[in-house]
Design a protein that fits this description.
With 116 residues, the chain is mainly alpha-helical. It has 6 helices and no strands. Helix 1 crosses helix 4.
């Protein structure tokens, strides 16, 4: 429960820094928050019910993850959640991968295929 709360806390800070304060992906505060979310994921049992609740913070961290190891953890956890049958997880993973490929913010890449 604490790890879930931490993950959402740090995801909120990423959105505050990126969307409201206009900080870049490489900003130290954004990267600290990404690191903290990834760290919180290690405290949540893989394949457990709590993991499925973490799509928002995983997506948030994934879009701003710059380090290979962080990205691997993000993809691993998304794949685990995707096995539960949540179709939006596949869409989230696809969008994160597009962010990594292009270096563009996710909101500039969103189109109809990511909704619904």
């Amino acid at each position: 429960m604490v790890a879930t709360n931490e993950a959402f806390h740090w995801a909120g800070l990423i959105h505050l820094n990126r969307r409201i304060l206009g900080k870049k992906n490489e900003d130290v505060e954004v990267q600290i928050a990404v690191r903290e979310i990834v760290s919180a994921l290690f405290k949540v049992r893989k394949g457990g019910t709590a993991e499925a609740c973490l799509l928002f913070p995983i997506f948030t961290a994934g879009c701003d993850a710059r380090e290979r190891g962080q990205r691997e953890v993000i993809i691993e956890r998304l794949s685990s959640i995707e096995e539960s049958g949540m179709t939006q997880v596949h869409k989230a993973r696809t969008l994160i991968e597009k962010v990594w490929e292009t270096g563009r913010p996710w909101e500039t890449l969103v189109s109809g295929e990511f909704f619904g």
